[in-house]
Amino acid sequence: MRRAFFAILKRDLAVAGRAGGGGELALVFFLTLVVLVPFALGPDLNLLSRIGPAILWLGALLSVLIGLDRLFQSDEEDGSLDLIRASALPLELAVLAKGLAHWLTTGLPLALVSPLLGLLVALPGEGVLPLVATLLVGTPALSFIGAGGAALAASLRRGGLIVPVLVAPLTVPVLIFGVSAANAAVGGTVPFLTPFLILCAISLGAIVVGTVAAAAALRSAD
Amino acid sequence: MIFEGLSFTLQSGEAIALTGRNGAGKSSLIAMLCGRLRPDGGSIRLEGAEDEADLAEMSHLVGHRDGLKTALTARENLAFAQDVLGNAAATPDEALAVVGLGHAAELPAGYLSAGQRRRVALARLLVSRRPYWLLDEPLSALDTASQAMVAGLMRDHLAQGGAILAATHGPLGIEGAREVRIGP
Fold first, then answer.
1. pLDDT band at B50 (very low <50, low <70, confident <90, very high)
2. What is the C-alpha to C-alpha distance for residues B7 and B181, in angstroms, rounded to an integer?
3. What is the Cα B131 distance to its own chain's centre?
4. Cβ–Cβ below 8 Å for B80 and A19
């Protein structure tokens, strides 16, 4: 069973590395969004610095959402989802492997490039590491909440926009506590750890609930 | 309602050619047999299995879609199938050699022709040992030589005590295959 789990993880990482698409597109979209915001707001560094964490979190959220529709759809289209269904590996663990691969190729790179993009929004130096930490623990929640929506849309041929529309409202708590924790580190009214630990709890909950929900959606898709 | 009143048994060492017009429900029946669809009525019993969930774990399904990732090589696709399905039998390289694609092991599946991709999908039957082969038009996109090769694979599987149910519009090339027709 462990072999099947790691086979799915390894395959999805290999496909993402060779075919590109989701992860790279998310990274470029993140970069584009964050670069455009200062042009829209003007050269007010205080304003940019104040809303910088929110811009970066919103950018990361949207970047994760745009590629989510392919999470199960590509497997459904080429028939490899039938192969996974025929495995002795419970579908929940297969979804966990795919969600983990999605995070490793999308959420993790976004978190790692965020310090660089923080420069563009005049993020104070003391806020960089906390921001990276919030993105590191918060983006798994986005991947796994998204997995539920992606599983629902797996068999839809033109389900591209449905997934972000379905998933975005469910990610509001992640956004609130992610931005709150990142702001707290640069002089907010609450201590950093309070919203950060809630964000960790949301992520852990999302991994469990998202995995079970996505597996149930895939089972009922037929 | 897709079909009703259908009843048959499939014994070890036996092959059934499932025939019927387009849309008669051949693919739906195969989806039911491998546990992907649940029938509204009736039952599917598998000797030695506790419930219908085991159908999927004891069956190989080669459907209309090849189940290959175009970015991965033929060998990587088969290695993935072996790891996911378990019960390892032939190695990916051995299986590819059997279907005449030993030279294409390093090629991404996206570079292969439709017939070659079909042969890689059929090579999946060899990398993992499962007693029931559920094949949906296994000979489609194959040339005459490849069709004979697949017929040979099916005969070998039957000789080893396996069972085959194949939806087809033409002869399977296996002597003694019983025909079950769906619809008029």
1. low
2. 11
3. 11
4. no
Any B CB within 8 A of A79 CB: yes
pLDDT digits (tens, 9 = 90+) for A44-70: 888 888 889 999 999 999 999 988 888
Which ranges constitute the DSSP H helices of chain A?
2-19, 22-41, 45-66, 70-78, 80-85, 91-102, 108-120, 128-152, 162-167, 172-184, 193-220
Round to whole Å and give the CA distance between B126 and B118. 14
Q: How far apart are the first and last CA of chain B?
A: 15
Rounded CA separation A128/A119 (Å): 9
CB pairs under 8 A between A and B: 76
Shortest CA gap B57–chain A (Å): 5
A111 Cβ partners below 8 Å, 6+ apart?
Answer: A60, A132, A135, A136, A139
In chain B, what are the domains?
15-38+50-182 (3.40.50.300)
The tens digit of pLDDT for each residue in A99-150 reads: 999 999 999 999 999 999 988 888 888 889 999 999 999 999 999 999 999 9
Q: Over 60: is that where the pLDDT of B111 sits?
A: yes
From the list B134, B125, B123, B118, the residue with the least C-alpha distance to B34 is: B134
Mutation to test the B interface, candidates A12, A82, A89, most B Cβ within 10 Å: A82
Average pLDDT of span B143-162: 91
Per-domain boundaries in chain A: 2-220
Is residue A7 less than 8 Å (CB to CB) from chain B? yes
Give the per-residue pLDDT at A222.
60
